[in-house]
Write a structure and sequence with these properties.
heterotrimer, A alpha/beta (392), B alpha/beta (216), C mainly alpha (533), A: 392 residues, alpha/beta, D-Maltodextrin-Binding Protein, domain 2, 2 domains, 6-stranded mixed β-sheet, 14 helices, 11 strands, 41% helix, B: 216 residues, 5-stranded parallel β-sheet, 4-stranded antiparallel β-sheet, 32% helix, 23% strand, globular
């Protein structure tokens, strides 16, 4: 309603007319949002989104809970292989990095569509801004940002009061506390991020990581990483013979007292998990002094999406100050907003300022610098190389 | 009105008939008693007449009931009633529903059907047994209900496969005369398979099944 | 029966064959060869050790257990709930039970930090084998007892005992080998299942590297487009491995039979060993019961940190919020649809056989084939085939895929009682003028009520337990309790996965309860219908 009214007041520009058309087409549609389903809070947030878009635009959202985003990519790929060009099963997909690169390269995506979203005005889309790059791959309007992610560690401050201050420092810490830390399997995104975090700190030439990984560059830049990892691995949980499947399973291990350190791609996650009773109240966030890598989570629309208009309406709603403040609320999701604070009006600013806090919720200034993600090819290669080296 | 058998034989596939060809004629209201040692195929001959031959057995010859040839007809179209040894009733239906299952379709209307059933039960001396569980009946009661069920279907002939053999001797005579009286009253032919010489005594004809190869 | 053949060919045979052919076609693509999969030799070894090991153990344990249960009709009733509990539920509960920080350790461990032992996900696959054994022993035991019911065994026991042999030895050396031909197919089903199980392997098995089946699933859903060709190649490999394992097992049967015979010829009387079966039965019951109990506790826990034996704080929010209700509804819907269609198909088949007076040739093969093939070696192909047929990924595709596995169990469960139906009752009905239709509706279905509902409960339980048949043809659009429970197990909130796992077990248990209760109620005044199988 508000949007239609705004379009009316501002005088209908062609873009606004298009959007009114999209809204009209979207009404009554059910959007199948393929999103990793391992986090009940995210699932609940998506249900809230569905209720809101249903009320406001007549668009309902049905979450397709994935255990891995690659499932959705495989699905769309199979549809394309079967010659399907419309009525696809996936309408909207929560996507990042290699999955985005794969879908973009194989022309599996609809777009560019981001510039057409009215709420995209609240995002900094100037050249080189965080929301224009996904793991150094130019977004080019093919996916819309929706939540900010920054890699952090968490420790149980009661059992392990002095966590390491740098990636290099993990080796000494692990030696002193054998079996008390691990990382998710690098086949999983979070496990790979742990290796990437170490790579960013240990690589001789950090700038080389922004370019696609060549054999030579990969060899040169990762040599110190493997040295570091060979020193670390014998002191890991189960002596590095097994790894938790993902960060959530590692959080379970932290709660069970099997390890003292966990890692998340969301600074608010530990506080949220404490509030649910899933983690001990003594868990706190820590980051290496040099900072951690961060990125923005996106949603994309497959080329053959059955409910493309509805998907655009949902992507647009996700960028509204209402949705972003709801998302940043620690009691809801606790994911940091992707909106540019400078572009918020006073009402939106007040909404963000009024959000509740928690003891385990880090202050922005404690999180340190946000380091750029390496080019996705580095992650793929890191994962493969790790599997080759360390799979029995 | 009669049931006529002409050169009837039953053989397992590829084998010789179980018994020598049977020819007989049973008039309305009469009872033919089949006797012969066990395993000769008395019950099989009944199955042949009733249309219940199991897989692997093939019948030959003519079975004619009131001028209709029965052989090409399925069992349900032959209008031949059947009473087994032990006279089992449908265990999942009440006594009344067992009778209702048998009662001919042309008796229509709920009250007419109900009346026909209660009438049949009182003829059997079982007034008010409609809702009884068949498993709670005595052997003699069961035989009487089974006969009533068979007669309510308005058969043109009745086959009895040793229906008294499990009853004690005292009861046997009573049930036997009950059965024969009802069958005679209906004026339909009956065939009775038996081991009991007393059964043969009350029958109108007696036929001994001869082994295959023996002359009649 | 031509139309019946067409129905079965189109509904069951064609999807399986097409699934195999499509998987094979993918496997033969050149892209498949260029894809390196780390640790594949270890995966293969793990698959063989856990699959063959679990089957051997299950068969071995079912021998004394079934002897113990042979005279105990009441104790036997405990097997049905075990069969009803889906693999995912048992695996989840077992994981909570035997983890280094699990319930068993909490009961005895004095320190604040869990011991550095390796249990769930152990690199040898022992936890996975334990889970499989716990699920397969009841199945094989029940099959053994059913086979034993076909023989007059007491005469054999009496003869043997009069010659001075204890019952346990007569059972192991004479009677059980006599029953084995009837057990062979169930053993092969167990073998094929254990070699290719995915949900249990995800929850209990090693992950680095995982078993072949899990590795194949990972590759089918990997980002790299070439990975699925490699997955198809491995899937065909798993098919060959399964075929090889069955062949080797067949050979080992001959050798074992000879060894047994040699021992028998020595005429040695052994000391009776009676406690074995009781010990296996009771420990299995305790382990399974504890696994379900710990799930129930987790489902109402709020905080449950390590050394605490019981949750620190309890909450029923998870149950009250009914988050699970929609998934439970979906599971129920799919289960009912797959079961009803399978039941109707089975009835059509059996009734058509009755009317034609002959058995369908090759029927057993149609029934048994989907159970003897590793699911992952053809289900991805089945999903692909559905897509080409215009059946979109979703509920319909899942129901169809599940029928491939539900129908065989329904058919097996109903065939025996159906063919044992009292022919006199049917002859009596015919002599009263009841044609085939009336005989079918009024007599056969009523007489078969209990076996029909039992078969339906078995079919429903099989449907509830399906994991791959939901995951692959459903393309993630369809979530059942089994897929949700497994997916949530890799989330942070153990309470939620416990809740889903528990509801997952409750549905089939309810179905078994109805299968017992409904005929008892319908036939409450019919003594002749009680005690019938």
């Amino acid at each position: 309603m508000k949007l239609i009214l705004a379009a009316f007041l501002l005088g209908a520009t062609p873009a606004m007319a298009d959007w009114a058309e999209t809204l009209a087409e979207a009404r009554g549609q059910t959007v199948y949002w393929n999103a990793w389903g391992g986090d009940p809070r995210t699932n609940a947030f998506i249900e809230w989104v569905s209720a809101r878009t249903e009320a406001e635009f007549g668009v309902s959202v049905q979450q397709v809970k994935l255990s891995d985003t690659a499932e959705a990519v495989a699905r769309v790929r199979a549809e394309k292989a079967a010659g399907q060009i419309e009525g696809g099963a996936v309408d909207l997909v929560w996507i990042n990095g290699p999955n985005f690169m794969a879908m973009k390269d194989e022309a599996l995506l609809h777009g560019p569509f981001v510039a057409g979203l009215p709420n995209a005005a609240g995002v900094d889309l100037s050249e080189g801004a965080a929301a224009t790059l996904d793991f150094t791959v130019p977004v080019e309007g093919m996916e819309a940002p929706w939540r900010l992610a920054k890699f952090v560690f968490a420790h149980d401050s009661a059992r392990a009061p002095e966590p390491p201050r740098s990636m290099a420092g993990f080796v000494d810490w692990a030696k002193a506390h054998p079996g008390r830390m691990t990382h998710p399997n690098p086949a999983n995104f979070m496990g790979a991020t742990f290796l990437k975090q170490a790579l960013v700190e240990l690589a001789p030439d950090r700038a080389a990581l922004a370019a696609p990984a060549t054999d030579a560059a990969f060899g040169a830049q990762t040599a110190p990483l493997w040295q570091w990892y060979d020193a670390l691995r014998p002191h890991l949980w189960r002596e590095g013979a097994a790894y938790p499947e993902n960060e959530s399973v590692q959080a379970q291990l932290l709660n069970d007292g099997e390890v003292d350190i966990a890692m998340f791609f969301d600074p608010a996650a530990p506080a949220a998990l404490i509030a649910q009773g899933v983690l001990p109240e003594t868990v706190r966030v820590f980051v290496p002094d040099a900072g951690t890598i961060g990125n923005i989570s996106f949603v994309a629309i497959p080329f053959d999406a059955a409910h493309r208009a509805g998907a655009e309406v949902v992507a647009n709603f996700l960028l509204s100050p209402e949705a972003q403040a709801q998302m940043q609320n620690i009691e809801v999701l606790g994911s940091y907003s992707v909106l540019d604070p400078a572009r918020l009006d006073d009402a939106a600013k007040a909404a963000f300022a009024a959000l509740p806090t928690a003891p385990a919720l880090p202050r922005l200034e404690d999180l340190g610098a946000t380091l750029p993600e390496p080019h996705p090819s580095w992650m793929t290669r890191l994962t493969e190389e790790w599997a080759k080296r360390y799979t029995p | 009105m009669s049931l006529d058998l002409v050169d009837v034989t039953v053989a397992p596939s590829g084998g010789a008939s179980l018994f020598a060809p049977v020819s007989a004629s049973v008039r309305a209201g009469q009872c033919l008693c089949l006797i012969g040692p066990s395993g000769r195929g008395k019950s099989t001959l009944l199955s042949m007449i009733g249309g219940h031959l199991p897989r692997g057995l093939t019948g030959a010859g003519q079975v004619v009931l009131n001028g209709r040839s029965l052989v090409p007809l399925p069992a349900e179209a032959r209008r031949v009633g059947l009473l087994f040894q032990d006279a089992p009733l449908f265990p999942h239906l009440s006594v009344g529903d067992n009778l209702a299952f048998g009662l001919a379709g042309h008796v229509s209307g709920r009250s007419a059907r109900r009346a026909a059933i209660s009438d049949a039960l009182s003829q059997a001396g079982l007034t008010g047994f409609e809702t009884r569980d068949p498993a709670t009946l005595s052997g003699g009661q069961r035989v009487r209900v089974a006969l009533m069920r068979a007669l309510l279907a308005e058969p043109e002939a009745v086959l009895l496969d040793e229906p008294f053999s499990r009853l004690d001797v005292a009861l046997r005579a009573e049930i036997r005369s009950f059965l024969l009286a009802h069958i005679r009253a209906r004026g339909i032919p009956a065939v009775l398979v038996s081991h009991d010489p007393e059964d043969a005594d009350v029958a109108d004809h007696v036929l001994t099944l001869a082994p295959w190869g023996a002359s009649q | 029966m031509i139309w019946l053949r067409l129905l079965l060919a189109g509904g069951i045979v064609a999807p399986v064959l097409a699934g195999l052919v499509l998987t094979l076609a993918m496997a033969l693509r050149p892209e498949a060869s260029g894809f390196a999969v780390a640790g594949i030799a270890t995966s293969l070894r793990l698959t063989l050790v856990t699959g063959v090991g679990a089957t051997l153990l299950s068969v071995g344990l079912s021998v004394p257990l079934s002897l113990w249960l042979l005279p105990k009709a009441r104790a036997r009733a405990w097997l049905a709930p075990f069969l009803a509990v889906p693999h995912a539920t048992l695996a989840l509960g077992l994981a909570f039970l035997i983890a280094p920080s699990g319930w068993l350790v909490r009961l005895v461990w004095p320190l604040d930090l869990p011991p550095a032992i390796v249990t769930v996900g152990d690199p040898w696959g022992l936890s996975l084998m334990l889970g499989l054994v716990l699920k397969e022993v009841p199945f094989l035991t029940l099959v053994t007892l059913a086979a034993a019911a076909q023989h007059l065994l007491e005469a054999h026991f009496a003869a043997g005992q009069s010659l001075g042999y204890p019952r346990s030895q007569i059972w192991r050396q004479v009677v059980w080998p006599m029953l084995y031909p009837a057990l062979r197919l169930p053993v092969f089903i167990t073998l094929a299942f254990s070699l290719s199980v995915v949900d249990m392997a995800l929850l209990l098995g090693p992950s680095h590297p995982p078993t072949l089946a899990v590795q194949i699933l990972r590759l089918f859903t990997a980002t790299d487009p070439d990975a699925r060709f490699a997955a198809a190649r491995l899937a065909i490999g798993l098919l060959l491995v399964t075929g090889g394992a069955v062949a080797v097992w067949r050979g080992a049967e001959v050798v074992t039979a000879r060894l047994l015979l040699n021992r028998l010829r020595k005429g040695m009387r052994r000391v009776p060993r009676g406690a074995g079966g009781a010990a296996i039965g009771v420990s299995g019951l305790i382990l399974g019961g504890a696994a379900v109990l710990v799930l129930a506790l987790w489902s109402v826990a709020r905080r449950w940190p390590f050394p605490a034996v019981l949750p620190e704080q309890m909450t029923f929010v998870g149950w009250q919020q009914l988050v699970w209700a929609q998934t439970a509804g979906e599971t129920l819907l799919i289960g009912l649809a797959a079961t009803v269609i399978s039941l109707v198909l089975a009835l059509i088949w059996l009734e058509a056989e009755d009317r034609s007076g002959s058995r369908m040739r090759g029927g057993a093969l149609i029934v048994i084939t989907p159970l003897l093939l590793p699911q992952i070696s053809f289900l991805q192909g089945v999903a692909q085939g559905f897509l080409w047929l215009g059946v979109p990924a979703g509920r319909m595709a899942v129901i169809w895929a599940e029928i491939l596995f539900v129908f065989p169990y329904v058919m097996i469960a109903i065939t025996g009682p159906w063919r044992a139906m009292d022919a006199q009752q049917l002859a009596a009905a015919a002599s009263l003028g009841a044609g085939p239709m009336r005989r079918f509706w009024r007599v056969k279905l009523s007489l078969m009520l209990r076996p029909l509902l039992t078969a339906a409960a078995i079919g429903f339980a099989v449907s509830c337990a399906q994991f791959l048949a939901v995951l692959l043809p459903g393309a993630g659009r369809v979530q059942t309790l089994a897929t949700e429970a497994v997916a949530l197990a890799s989330g942070a909130d153990r309470r939620l996965s416990a809740l889903y796992g528990l509801v997952l077990a409750l549905l089939p248990l309810l179905a078994y309860g109805l299968a017992l209760g409904v005929p008892a109620w319908v036939h409450r005044d019919r003594r002749g219908m009680r005690g019938e199988r």
